[in-house]
Amino acid sequence: MPDASRQSPARPSSTSSSTELARHSTRPYCTQSYGKRDLNRGRNRTLMDGPWRGMQEGDDDKRRPHGHAGEIAYAAIRDRLLRDEWPAGTRLLEADLAALTGVSRTPVRDALRRLSNEGFLDYVANAGCRVKAFTAKDVEAAFDLRVELESYAARRAASRAGTAQIAALSALCDRMEEIAADPEGEPRSRDQLTPLNQSFHAVIVEAADNPRLAPFLANVTSAPVVLRTYRSYTAEEIARSMGHHRELIQALQAGDADWAGAVMRSHIHAGYRAALRDTGLFGAVAENTQD
């Protein structure tokens, strides 16, 4: 449990806020301060199904000459999945995706493998990959874990956040509010807000200073139903999210763990409700509750 008194940060905080913003806004959320390896790739995990059974994810990266093309295909397909351009259950054919992304079928196959392992796709024997259909349990499981882990992180950060981390959070808030206020920014602004929001939460996890927390949370926040949150928000909900971020900074500056934890819980619950609405699962959750 954190001490009641405010502790000094473990690292020097002489880094300027602009440097901190650059550092926190240029890397994906689940690789930001979450350990030395790339958690998106999960290099020490064995693939359990599909045509890649038994392989260690990342093993083929060492052998194939298609790394750059694979990243191009991965980014293009993932972006379309996050935009819901293909309905759930859609079969994704390697030849079609190769033509779409401008690369050969081998890097497309690599990209589909990664996306299947990350939960975007389902591998169906003799049918290839299909776009995953998310259930009420998928959404509930992701956000139930997220609300507990991130509120815990916020509580710890209240007694541990250093000056540089507070400055980085403030700079990220400034940038997000600037983007959200641009009337010409839709829908591009949603694409810009998502990585900045991920970076904001990553700074809080970093400030919590618990190395065991980050890998657990990375697995939760990389779930597609979580990554789509900002795309689900209305303009009013985005404004409320910005307000939550500002209040979180105030709670951290005050060193108030209860306040920080409560704001974070409300913040994540708001995302949960938006995710349910976006996937049309309000009724399904109600039915599960009654079972």
Give the oligomer, counting copies of the same chain as homo and different chains as hetero: single chain
Q: Based on DSSP secondary structure assignment, what is the total number of beta strands?
A: 3
Percent strand equals under 5%
Helix-strand topology string: HHHEHHEEHHHHHHHHH
Question: Quick one: CATH class of the largest domain?
Answer: Mainly Alpha
The CATH topology of the largest domain, please? Answer: Four Helix Bundle (Hemerythrin (Met), subunit A)
Low-confidence stretches: 1-65, 282-291
Shape-level CATH architecture of the largest domain: Up-down Bundle
Q: Give the domain tally.
A: 2
Q: Order of strands across the biggest sheet?
A: 1-3-2
Distance between the termini: 36 Å
Mean pLDDT: 77
Characterize the structure shown.
The chain has 291 residues and is mainly α. It folds into two domains: 175 residues, Four Helix Bundle (Hemerythrin (Met), subunit A) (Up-down Bundle), CATH 1.20.120.530; 68 residues, Arc Repressor Mutant, subunit A (Orthogonal Bundle). 62% of the residues lie in helices and 3% in strands. The chain has 14 helices and three strands. Strands 1-3-2 form a three-stranded antiparallel β-sheet. Helix 6 packs antiparallel against helix 13. It starts with 16 loop residues before the first helix and ends with a helix.
